[in-house]
Amino acid sequence: MAQPARTIEPRTAPVDEPPLDPLAIEDAYRKHRAARAARVQRKRAKVRAGVRFWALLVIGIAVAVLLAARTMGEIERVFGL
Q: How far apart are CA 27 and CA 36, in angstroms?
């Protein structure tokens, strides 16, 4: 005759043990610090890129104005305008 199957009770962790690996916590802190540092670095790089853009734009416009003024001066001198 068949016998009833044994029931297996689920194992539970003791209450006084931490459920997480301590190294996992350190890894998470390191990951979040690296992400924050990368965000700050991207923000600084973006600001520097904007400053470079505007500086080069101003220098380019200044050079164009100077060249236009010199050209107009030469045109006036040559053609006597």
A: 14
